[in-house]
Amino acid sequence: QVQLVESGGGSVQAGGSLRLSCAASIYPYSTYCMSWFRQAPGKEREGVASIDSNGSTSYADSVKGRFTLSQDNDKNTLHLQMRSLKPEDTAMYYCAVDPVSRTYGGSWCRKRTAGEYNYWGQGTQVTVSS
User: Fold this and answer.
1) How many CB atoms lie within 10 A of CB 30?
2) In this structure, what is the dihedral angle of CA atoms 29, 61, 66, 127, given to the nearest 10 degrees?
3) Residue from 46, 47, 39 nearest 90 by CA
4) In which band, very low, low, confident or very high, does the pLDDT at 68 lie, cut at 50, 70 and 90?
5) pLDDT higher than threshold 90 for residue 63
6) What are phi and psi of 48, to 5 degrees?
7) How far lies 120's CA from each of 97, 114, 123, in Å?
């Protein structure tokens, strides 16, 4: 059964950094999209960064150059390194997995809607103050 557990959220000042982690058990799936979404109060959940099971990544324009995905060698943990944080990055951040029959790269994964992702973590709060 898929299990996702996020950690690493917190409060920082603008310009600061945080590293989110998603401990993932994705058995029995070997082909999947894995993404970080975020949701601010009163706003829709939006995709931030995605990686497919081949390691192809993609980032939303709003975070490109500031956020970086990485995985542990065993691919059991997905990290989101966030730098140069802005107040508009404040949101609840969620890790999600979408098992698929095949992938077409990280960009394809990031274009998949939140509703297409079957498995979600509980979320971790990121608050950036100005």
Assistant:
1) 8
2) -80
3) 39
4) very high
5) yes
6) -105, -50
7) 7, 10, 8
Mean pLDDT for 33-38 is 97
H/E stretch holding 68 = strand 67-71
Q: Give the CA count within 13 Å in the CB-facing half-sphere of 130.
A: 2
Identify how many contiguous H helices and E strands the chain contains and give both numbers. 1, 11
Backbone angles phi, psi at 108, to 5 degrees: -65, -40
For residue 25 the two structure tokens come to 């058990």
Q: In angstroms, how far is CA 80 from the centroid of its own chain?
A: 6
Q: Are strands 18-25 and 77-82 parallel, antiparallel or unpaired?
A: antiparallel
| pLDDT > 90? residue 83 | yes
Model pLDDT for residues 38-59, shown as the tens digit of each residue: 999 999 999 999 999 999 999 9
